[in-house]
Design a protein that fits this description.
Helix 1 runs antiparallel to helix 2 and helix 2 runs antiparallel to helix 3. This protein has 125 residues and is mostly helical. The protein has four helices and no strands.
Length: 125
């Protein structure tokens, strides 16, 4: 079971890093989410992988540590909030620049800012 769990954590981390290195917004958001899933599973595995174990020390011979479970629960809530923030930030960036690239370069085929922000003539109506 430990080998399978380690392979799952490794594949989530690999896929997350691969997607974070992409040049578009949506794959970066999905990559960050996959990385957070991998970290959550890693934190969860630090509390011993025991099936049917109770989280109370002394009540049974096999017990599971409740601290990693609490850490993972907190990380899930924080990860959801950060994912929502990154999605809103990406939507705002796309609305402002008209492009969803995350590499920081400006496209040359877009009109200049001076032509976009020119004041409109008032017609008096």
């Amino acid at each position: 079971m430990e080998i399978t769990f380690a392979l799952i954590i490794g594949s989530l981390t690999f896929a997350g890093v691969y997607l974070v290195l992409r040049a578009r917004t949506f794959p970066v958001v999905v990559g960050l989410t996959l990385l957070s899933y991998g970290v959550n599973l890693f934190l969860f595995s630090t509390g011993r992988l025991v099936t049917g174990g109770q989280p109370i020390i002394g009540s049974t011979e096999n017990y599971s540590d409740p601290l990693p479970q609490a850490l993972v629960l907190t990380a899930i809530v924080i990860g959801f909030a950060m994912t929502a923030f990154v999605v809103v930030l990406a939507l705002r960036s796309k609305a402002d620049t008209g492009d969803d690239h995350v590499d920081g370069t400006r496209r040359t085929d877009l009109p200049d800012e001076a032509t976009i922000d020119q004041p409109r003539e008032e017609t008096g109506q």
